[in-house]
Amino acid sequence: MKRTLLILGFVSLLFFGFMEYRIESVPINTNNSLSAKQVIENYFKFYNEKNRGGMLSTLTRWNDQPNVVFGLKNLIFIKLVSIGNKDMNATEHYLAFGRGRFNGVKKNNVVSYKVIYVSLYSKTTPPWSSGIHTDCFTLIRESDNAPWLIDDSGQ
Predict the structure, then answer these.
(1) Neighbours of 88 (CB within 10 A)
(2) b vs e for 106-127, b when ≥16 Cβ sit within 10 Å of the residue's Cβ?
(3) CA–CA separation, 94 vs 62, rounded Å?
(4) Burial grade of 33 (CB within 10 A; 0-12, 13-18, 19 or more)
(5) Predicted TM-score (pTM) of this structure
(6) CATH for 2-24+33-154?
(7) Res 17: pLDDT
(8) Are the beta carbons of 83 and 115 closer than 8 angstroms?
């Protein structure tokens, strides 16, 4: 099993290492000047660095709870592959059935993207698994002048 994970990790590194999509130095979201996509880029940068504080700077306060675990202990690496175009269906779903029903966010302050990333963990424990993943990331902001923050992610 460990050998399979190491081979998967090595092949993933080779494959994704040669891709043109690169994340250069991405500033921390301390102001409102970052786009929603830049916030997602920061999230994966901090995640790969196992920087919980940095990750929390890209997330809404709802994600900063004692019971929220990010799986950093078993993480070998995580790398963002791509951020797709806006996903209006996911945004509508968030507003109708997700946290958007309760948090009072306005439709123009919600945006969702399909995100592809690759991860490798030394030990896989649900919900974290090694491989290529496609998830939807929904970001919100309190007002038109507030910073974008990730409020929800998943399939």
Answers:
(1) 10
(2) eeebbbbbbbebbbbbeebeee
(3) 15
(4) exposed
(5) 0.78
(6) 3.10.450
(7) 46
(8) yes
